[in-house]
Design goal:
- By secondary structure, this protein is of the alpha/beta class.
- 40% of the residues lie in helices and 17% in strands.
- The protein contains 24 helices and 25 strands.
- The protein has a 6-stranded mixed sheet, with helices on both faces. Strands 14-12-15-16-11-19 form a 6-stranded parallel sheet.
- Helix 17 packs across helix 19, helix 18 runs antiparallel to helix 21 and helix 19 packs antiparallel against helix 20.
- It is globular.
- The relative contact order is 0.10.
């Protein structure tokens, strides 16, 4: 018998019991699959709630969405949208619904799986999809979904990824054929579905029990002790930099879970904070199930709920011709800030006894209203955490305070426990120069620190570089200071506003130092792989693939991955003229049996190609960045690189903060708040590097002048 999670005999005890179609399918799987198969029911996958997941080690994953629908009540219109007959209302196609679960496994949930798929498209076949229609047969499904559109080749191709399963196929012979076609039954193992990947997916599917011994005891202040207690209430908790807001949130979340026995919803604005908060929860010295804490950012939460509830997106016909600003406004108005979005689904929504929201200064008022109105249980616990001085998006304030949907006066954390005294002094000086009249100025630098005696430690420095090669200069500064401070790469973070600069530096650093890094964005090689894939039918790209004719590589997709690495290496060799790039390039070419002159000639033709201009990569890059952010952990053992806004809420032992020359308002941030947010991520060592920004130079120099090094 297959191994069930939860155990099959406990299905009747679940809070949300199986629907008739779900139970019928589960019983069929119980009777027909052996114990090499794992069956997960109602698993919670970072907000996604697929009905059934079948996984078999060494072979693959199969996601099944179950519908007890009678298709006579529905129709598919000429635009291939599913609709109800009684009122013509749009509903989400169950095929699109299950495909979204699959896409999210790649795009969000599983670390590095998206990059693996980009480098080798065969990874996409590891996860398969199906929809089981309990009240339909293969014939009725064919006549409803396929036959009316049999001449639409594009539509029929879109169905290839999904098995349409009628009840008549729930017999051993037909179902084994389905599993055979999806490689869950096979004469050979799927090489790409490695043990590491299997364990990575299994970790997300199974509950994880945390013990008291795994936590860390913290000596909380009197105010902090008060704020970690859980009780039904609605409050805003304001806190200065390093006051322990996230640590308090984590302890309160655990206490709430112990009090209610229910899953706790924790929302952020910044997607990268998810794992930082999970790390803080993991440090709480108590016994609990880590799966009882649903941590995500607002936009992913709303998107997941729309998919779980089967609410479809309705886009204007000319939507894809709109500007990014127009698209963003549309999403905001019609969905994310639409207070009536879930009005017709309120009885189907899972309510939470406790909702904790971090970074509330970045939230719009309608977001707070939507969360409170539709997702908070009656009489529940609704706690908001924030710092108005980190208001990097310039949200409107009232009397210098954050605007929320809570009537009570805020509770305040006024003591900074995290940062060295010199960094606290710099932060207060920055407030006095840039925030006077806009915010109330803090005085945490004058208070007695309780941060374990770090007041006289640490290092601060300000470096102004008006000219020169900023990549090489930054590398030398990072290496020299790391040696001087005897810092492990795991404790070093580099923050900047520009992803393109960070991506370039990341590649330079990895090749020259021979060290790995951890980033919240795509690597140089992956950027070029995306570019090559998008232009794969261009003659120049085909010629590039032909360079590998003498190599052992068979698949063009993998050849383009290797070509992307070669492009990156030769580009940097020409720009920086470093022997380390030439050595690496020569080794790479030799390994693939490619002559340097042949590659050089091809690369020159590649540079002259007109297709280099205006290639649209934005949507593909966004998926990679979301995946990297979703799986960015505090202690990867390597140097970390991030934009300032993506690192908001985090902390670093040694921080290199970059201020570029070409900062403009087009980035959409409040730059005074952005720089303040960046510098206050540092715990002990802060090195600020200004690449020729004269506007900020005079003031920034003043911040550091009186600091002892």
């Amino acid at each position: 018998m297959a191994i069930f999670f939860p155990p099959f005999e406990k299905f009747s005890l679940l809070k949300v019991k199986p629907e008739p179609g779900e139970f019928y399918l589960l019983k069929f799987l119980k009777d027909n699959l052996d114990d090499s198969f794992e069956v997960y029911f109602q698993t919670f996958l970072n907000g996604d709630r697929p009905d059934i997941i079948i996984m078999r080690k060494d072979y693959g994953v199969f996601i099944i969405e179950v519908k007890d629908w009678n298709l006579s009540h529905y129709y598919i219109d000429e635009k291939r949208r599913w609709r109800l007959k009684k009122n013509h209302a749009y509903i989400k196609s169950p095929i699109d619904q299950v495909l979204r679960y699959k896409e999210n496994i790649y795009n969000l949930h599983i670390p590095n799986l998206l990059e693996c798929k980009i480098k080798d498209f065969r990874f996409w076949s590891i996860v398969s999809c199906g929809v089981y229609f309990h009240n339909e047969t293969s014939e009725t499904l064919k006549s409803f979904i396929i036959d009316p559109f049999k001449d639409d080749i594009k539509y029929l191709k879109s169905l290839w990824n999904t098995d349409l399963i009628g009840r008549n196929l729930l017999n051993r012979s037909d179902f084994e054929r389905i599993l055979w076609n999806r490689h869950l039954i096979s004469n050979y193992k799927k090489e790409l579905f490695s043990e590491n990947l299997y364990n990575s997916i299994k970790r997300y599917l199974q509950p994880i029990q945390h013990t008291k011994e795994e936590g860390v005891l913290i000596n909380f202040s009197i105010m902090q002790k008060r704020l970690i207690l859980s009780k039904p209430s609605e409050r805003l908790i304001k806190g200065v930099m390093g006051s322990g807001k996230t640590t308090i949130l984590a302890h309160r979340a655990v206490n709430s879970n112990k009090r209610t026995g229910q899953k706790v919803l924790i929302l952020t604005f910044n997607i990268t904070l998810k794992n930082f908060i999970h790390d803080k929860i993991n440090n709480v010295p108590d016994d609990f199930n880590l799966n009882d804490f649903y941590v995500t950012n607002y936009h992913n939460f709303i998107s997941a709920e729309l998919n779980n509830l089967g609410i479809d997106y309705i886009l204007p016909e000319d939507f894809f011709a709109w500007t990014d600003i127009q698209k963003s406004s549309f999403w905001e108005e019609k969905y994310y800030s639409n207070i009536n979005l879930f009005e017709d689904y309120s009885d189907k929504i899972i309510k939470y006894e406790t909702i904790l929201i971090d970074e509330i200064q970045d939230y719009k008022k309608p977001w707070m209203e939507i969360i409170k109105k539709f997702f908070l249980a009656k009489g529940g616990e609704f706690i908001l955490y924030g710092d108005e001085k980190q208001n990097i998006f310039g949200n409107v304030l009232k009397n210098k305070e954050i605007i929320t949907n809570i009537d009570h006066e805020p509770l305040e954390l006024k003591v900074c426990f995290r940062s060295d005294q010199k960094i606290k002094d710099i932060a207060i000086k920055f407030q006095q120069i840039f925030f006077q009249g806009k915010y109330n100025i803090d005085d945490f630098n004058k208070q007695l620190s309780l941060s374990l005696g770090f007041e006289d430690c640490g290092y601060t420095n300000y470096i102004f570089l008006p000219t020169g090669n900023s990549i090489i200069a930054l590398y030398d500064i990072v290496v020299d200071n790391s040696k001087r401070l005897k810092e492990h790469p795991n404790d070093i973070t580099i923050l900047s506003l520009s992803i393109s600069f960070l991506r370039k530096f990341d590649f330079y650093y990895r090749i020259r130092s021979n060290e790995k890094t951890n980033t919240m964005f795509e690597t140089e090689e992956v950027w070029y792989k995306l570019f090559l894939d998008l232009n794969m039918n261009h003659e120049i790209i085909k010629n590039g693939v032909e360079l590998f004719s003498k190599s052992k590589l068979q698949k063009d997709d993998i050849k383009r991955s290797k070509l992307a690495v070669l492009i990156s290496l030769v580009r940097f060799y020409r720009e920086f003229n470093g022997d380390f790039f030439k050595i690496k390039l020569d080794k790479y070419l030799a390994k693939q049996n490619i002559e340097y002159l042949s590659f050089k000639d091809w690369y020159d033709s590649f540079l002259n190609g007109e297709f280099l201009k205006g290639t649209p990569l934005a949507s593909r890059i966004k998926n990679i960045r979301d995946n990297k952010k979703f799986n960015f952990w505090p202690n990867p053992g390597t140097l970390k690189l991030s934009t300032i806004h993506s690192f908001k809420g985090w902390e670093a032992n040694t921080l290199f903060l970059l201020v570029e020359q070409n900062i403009t308002s087009s980035y959409g941030f409040s730059f005074d708040e952005l720089i303040y947010t960046g510098m206050t991520r540092s715990r002990h060592n802060l090195i600020m590097i200004n690449f020729g920004n004269d506007y900020y130079h005079k003031e920034l120099k003043l911040l550091f002048e009186n600091q002892k090094v």
